[in-house]
Design goal:
four-stranded antiparallel β-sheet; alpha+beta
Length: about 190
Amino acid sequence: MTDLFTAQLGSYGFTPQEITQLIKLSNLKVLPAKSTLIHQNSAASEFYFLIDGFCHSCYLTEQGKQFSKEFYWKGDWVVGFEELLDQTPSPYTLETITPTRLIALPITLLNQWRKDANLLYIKLLETQLVYKERKERFMLLYSPQSRYEIFCQHYPDLHSQLSDYQVAAYLGITHISLSRIKNRIKKLT
């Protein structure tokens, strides 16, 4: 299906036979921008490996506000650990931002990896934990303007694909605050 997928599985210690078996269980999805993969409060039946494109998970409030959870891009695994571990519906919506190709695998496989303490499952958990620690530090230690500047420096490709509403939601601020920050930065340059 994709060299990136098989290479990553190989780097985690999967044998060629195990990789072939996983490919047989997988489903290649080619989706346009703004496609919903998981609706908030619904049960996920799949988890994903992103081949190309950008995806976004977000929380939607009853008042229509959107708070970004995460962005995903090429080479990322998209796994909802909270619903997997607690056996609950997804607390967020997962959607594509751009045209996207991804590999979908059944959630039952992830449950089996969990029971077996599979190396890939452990690697996915560790990756998610490190990401959460970094995001927490980012949100707590930096001002909104600093968060915006860091975001632009670290994710220039992602930034160019997002609306101001999406960037603001990720930074934990309103789009009006983001507009003010951008204007302040313009005045300084």
